[in-house]
Amino acid sequence: MKKKRIVAALGGNALGNTPAEQIRAVRKASEAIAGLAAQGHELIIGHGNGPQVGIINSAMNYAAESGPMIPSMPFAECGAMSQGFIGYHLQQALNQELLRRKVSKTVVSVVTQVLVDQEDEAFKEYTKPIGRFYTGEEARRMEAENGYRFMEDAGRGWRRVVPSPQPRRIIELPAIRRMVQSGLMVIAVGGGGIPVIEGEEGLQGIDAVIDKDRSCARLALELKADILMILTAVDHVFVNFNKPDQKALTEVTEKEAARYIAQGQFAKGSMEPKMEACLEFVSGLPGRMAVITSLKNADCALEEGIGTKLYSDSSRGEKKTDWHIEDYEVRLD
Prior knowledge:
By secondary structure, the protein is α/β, with parallel strands linked by helices. Helix content is 35%, strand content 22%. It has helices at 19-38, 50-66, 75-100, 136-146, 173-181, 212-222, 254-262, 271-282, and strands spanning 5-10, 42-47, 107-109, 113-115, 128-134, 149-152, 158-162, 169-170, 185-187, 194-199, 202-205, 227-232, 237-239, 247-249, 251-253, 289-294, 308-311. Strands 3-9-2-1-12-16-17-15 form an eight-stranded mixed sheet, sandwiched between helices. Strand 1, helix 1 (19-38) and strand 2 form a beta-alpha-beta unit. Helix 1 (19-38) crosses helix 3 (75-100), helix 2 (50-66) packs across helix 3 and helix 6 packs parallel to helix 8. The two termini are 29 Å apart.
C-alpha cells in the first residue's frame, strides 16, 4: 500500500481519568499509532480531553472556592492546560515506541486555537457538560455569582454546561502544515482546540467545547490528508443498534451515511458527530476515506473488512488504493 497522510482522532475517555491511568493508556495507544508510522504513513494526531479538562476545571474551581488567594481559572485556559498535559504524555509514549521500532520520527505537540463564530446557533443552547457535579444549592449560587449555566445530569447532581460551536478556522494551521512537511509527527487540535473568537483586541478564549472529531475533520481537509481515522471504543459503527436486526457497517458512501444520520441511527452525543465529521471530510472529494474503528484495530484499520469505512459517492467503484498523498498539491500558506 502506498504512503498515506492520516489524521487520527483519539477519544479523551480512552486516555483514563488520572495521570497514572493516562500514562498506561497512551502507551497502548502509541503502540497502534507507531504501527501505522512503521508502515510508512504520515500521522497527525488529534485527541479528546473530556475527562481531563473536567478534572482541571474542577480542581481550579475548588481551589478558587477555598480562599481569596487563588483566582478562578477561565475554561479556555483549562483547555490549554489539558492540551499540554495530554500532549506531554503522548509525546513521551510515542517517542519511546517509535524508538523501539527503529522509526526515525520526532513527535511534537502544538497548543492549538480554533476560531468559532460568535453567531453560531450553538451559543443559544448550552448542552455540553463540563467539570464536577454540584448540589442544586451550589449550582444556583454559582449561577448568581459567576453567570454560569447548570443542568441536572441524570439524577447525579448539577453540572455546568457550555456551548459546542462548529470549528471555523485552525489558527496554528500554517505552523502545523510546515511541521508535517518537515517530517515531524504532530499532535494538534487537542480537545477540539481552544475555542477563540475575534474581538476588538484580537483573539480571545471563550467558555465552550468544540467537538474534537469535527476539528480533526477540518484539520484533515486543510492538510489534504488521504484518511481521517476516528479511533473509539467499538470495532464498527452499527445501524439498528441493540435491536434484533442490528448490523455492522463496513463500507458506506456519503449518501448512505447522510440517510442513516437523517433516520437518527446514531446516538447524538457519541456516534452521530463522528459520522458527521467523516461525512464532512469525504463529501464530494473522490479518493478520500474516513474510518471509524477501535484503538486496538488502528494499525490494521486500512485493511479490508476492518472498521467502518466511509467514501464519497464519486469514489464508488474505483480502486481505493490508487490514491496517495503525492497526488496532491503541497501548500505552504
